[in-house]
Design a protein that fits this description.
Layout (H helix, E strand, L loop, with lengths): L7 H17 L14 H18 L3 H13 L1 H4 E6 L3 E6 L7 H19 L9 H13 L5
Antiparallel strand pairs: 1-2
């Protein structure tokens, strides 16, 4: 069940439900729901990652995993997990778990890195004409991405 705790009525309903489950001694799962990244943000990310792949000769998956997640945004994506046989291992967080603010920060870091370190300009989301041009380039190279 979802409750909006900024709404006074739903706040009271949440308290009543929690108290009821508490008294029953149930197993519960309580999670905070963060605003998910938007579809337009997701489309933009995949477009610039694909374009970066075209420019560097890498696949979209490789660019996303190795450059976007591991190299540029390790604090956002790399998590440590205890494996019973291997000990502590690193795993990559899925970008679908990010909220809008986290995704915006990760994209900005990647754009800055691409420009400063790789010499590849990635247009801003509001630069519609440039995004159209790189979309054409990505479509031409779709078989290699």
């Amino acid at each position: 069940m979802l409750f909006d705790l900024s709404n006074d009525l739903q706040k009271q309903q949440f308290k009543a439900r929690c108290n009821f489950l508490y008294k029953k001694g149930c197993v519960v799962d309580l999670k905070e729901k963060k605003p998910k990244r938007t579809n337009s943000q997701n489309a933009y990310l995949h477009l610039i990652l694909s374009y970066f792949g075209c420019e560097t000769g890498n696949t979209l998956d490789y660019v996303k995993r190795e450059y976007f997640k591991k190299l540029v945004n390790p604090d956002t994506f790399i998590r440590q997990k205890d494996d019973p046989y291997l000990g502590q291992i690193n795993i990559l967080r899925s970008s679908s778990e990010l909220d809008t603010a986290e995704m915006t920060t990760a994209i900005e870091r990647f754009r800055n890195w691409a420009s400063n370190e790789a010499g590849i300009y990635l247009p801003a989301p509001e630069d519609e004409r440039m995004l159209q041009l790189i979309q054409i380039e990505v479509e031409r190279n779709r078989n290699y991405l």
